[in-house]
Write a structure and sequence with these properties.
A hairpin with a 5-residue loop joins strand 6 (58-65) and strand 7. With 114 residues, the chain is mainly β. The chain contains no helices and eight strands. It is rod-shaped and about 85 Å long. It has a domain at 10-81: Immunoglobulin-like (Sandwich), CATH 2.60.40.
């Protein structure tokens, strides 16, 4: 009796890329060796769990093989939602020393790398 089993991959991501979450953690299980493509934006493209930091939305493909030489490929879409401009600020800043609206602070600025 001959039993044929196919290599099945499970591919996941932690999140999409935003200003608040600039990194995504990719993960694949089901094989022994892995190759993620494209390699741009990945910490290491030959491991099961690379860290992704792409500058634009990217479809990643991962190919895996097992100890019997069987191969499988799957894909994962990673969205990048960053703005490359600072939005208009409210005009309620009045540094006149009266204790109202005297201070202006910007907590974070997200910059899209090009």
């Amino acid at each position: 009796m001959l039993t044929i089993q196919t290599l099945q991959l499970i591919v996941t991501k932690s999140n999409n890329i935003t200003c608040d979450s600039p990194l995504a953690y990719l993960n694949v299980t089901g094989g022994n060796n892995y190759l993620w493509l494209p390699a741009e934006g990945l910490s290491i493209n030959t491991i099961a769990n690379p860290v992704a930091n792409p500058v634009k939305q990217t479809m990643y493909y991962v190919t895996a093989n097992d100890s019997f030489g069987c191969n499988a490929t799957d894909s994962l879409f990673l969205s990048v939602m960053k703005d490359d401009e600072i939005k208009p600020l409210p005009n309620v800043f009045s540094p006149n020393g009266d204790g109202y609206n005297d201070c202006l602070s910007i907590a974070a600025v997200c910059v899209l790398r090009k």
